[in-house]
Amino acid sequence: MAKKFSLDKKYIKILLLEGIHSSSVESLKASGYSNVEYLKTALDEEELIQKIKDVHMIGIRSRTQLSEKILKKAKKLFAIGCFSIGTNQVDLHSAKQMGIPVFNAPFSNTRSVAELVIAEAILLMRGIPSKNAAAHRGEWQKTAKNAYEVRDKNLGIVGYGHIGSQVSILAESLGMNVYYYDIEKKLSLGKAVACSSLNELLRISDVVTLHVPQTENTRKMISTVQIAKMKKGALLINASRGTVIDYPALAEALKSGHLSGAAADVFPKEPASNNEKFVSELQEFDNVILTPHIGGSTSEAQENIGMEVTEKLIRYSDNGSTIGAVNFPQVSLLPNREKQRFLHIHKNVPGILKEINDVFTSKEINIASQYLQTDTDIGYVIIDTESEISNTILKELKKIPNTIKARMLY
Ligand SMILES: NC(=O)C1=CN([C@@H]2O[C@H](COP(=O)(O)OP(=O)(O)OC[C@H]3O[C@@H](n4cnc5c(N)ncnc54)[C@H](O)[C@@H]3O)[C@@H](O)[C@H]2O)C=CC1
Ligand SMILES: O=C(O)C(=O)COP(=O)(O)O
């Protein structure tokens, strides 16, 4: 007979922040997770520390910072869902050391970002942002001066991953010549041409669009020196992360007229809620499109993200699967509710698997199946056992030196 989950799902507390799509709550409830607290906003550090203490799983978007300090307070936390592509808002290494896998949605909002970027390229090429601002002030700027088609113009894509390559396809369908630069070797889609350096891409592009993650290498990768290498009158679009462009340097280039326009969706410091004031050095420029980090904010994307990340959280909570985790060894064992299932997360030290197996051997319990994966820091093993046994075995597993977390699922 199928066994019950060892911890009744109604005791698994889930906190969803930042207005995650209702598809997430629906999926959780349909899978028996009824203990869900749903908030439309992000929490400040103090509020988050208070709340996270009792939470088993948390769902966040890009505004919630899960630093080491906050994670240390989350004694019961066993999984994190980033309902976004980016995972830079989480201290991934600390989470891993604490035995907490982090899941995200690597492509549910790709298309939404790509569409926004293409729209911005067209609007900027026509000088629409300035003309729109002027019209709102009662000025009639009917002129073809400095207004161009995107057809036959060079688009330079920095970061040819999911979003960059999607932008590439859409841009080619409009007749643009696509160039890209990536630190990894990539398959060029259509007629897109790989550049051998960022400088080469900057030199030839009429529009430059950034699609790299936030890392130490991408911090201010576009600053005064790089902007100076761009064509006079070129356009710059950033829907990646606010740290990637040096915005004061961009403001200087707009002031001097070296660049003729820009679009920014992301900023180094973004308001924590819609009630907080937004401040940027780019606000004074009519030829800059400013959007409040909404590249991935479409109904389609949010609904898909809600389902995708929730499914990963449920698969981990129900069966121990870490497939799709961004900071963890990838392990999945088919659910087998006829057996007893244990999870053991430990520091990756020699001999620990033997110690785990000895716990079962000493009780004459047969292991039906077992799957271990390690990385340089940790090991994660799922163990299915033949016999029905009591919770005491879990206590013994937890006592093994270098254990980070051990759970009995069912
Ligand atoms: N504005 C918004 O609402 C959204 C923003 N994003 C941002 O867009 C970023 C990119 O997303 P994806 O395309 O899905 O990621 P991805 O991981 O598929 O692609 C990123 C690409 O950048 C390349 N790359 C990394 N460092 C580089 C460097 N220094 N120079 C050149 N290339 C470099 C990688 O090799 C990879 O091909 C995300 O990390 C996220 O920060 C994502 C979704 C929505
Ligand atoms: O998916 C991403 O990386 C994003 O930047 C989207 O962030 P958001 O969920 O809109 O706060």
Give your account of this protein's structure.
31% of the residues lie in helices and 19% in strands. By secondary structure, it is α/β, with parallel strands linked by helices. It has a seven-stranded parallel sheet, with helices on both faces. It has three domains: 126 residues, Rossmann fold (3-Layer(aba) Sandwich), CATH 3.40.50; 180 residues, Rossmann fold; 81 residues, Alpha-Beta Plaits (2-Layer Sandwich), CATH 3.30.70.260. It is elongated. The longest helix has 21 residues. α3 links the parallel β3 and β4. The site of 1,4-dihydronicotinamide adenine dinucleotide (NAI) has 32 residues, from α5 and α7.
Throw out a few tags for this protein.
alpha/beta, Rossmann fold, Alpha-Beta Plaits, 3 domains, 5-stranded parallel beta sheet, 13 helices, binds 2-oxo-3-(phosphonooxy)propanoic acid, phosphoglycerate dehydrogenase activity, D-isomer_DH_CS1, NAD(P)-bd_dom_sf, oxidoreductase
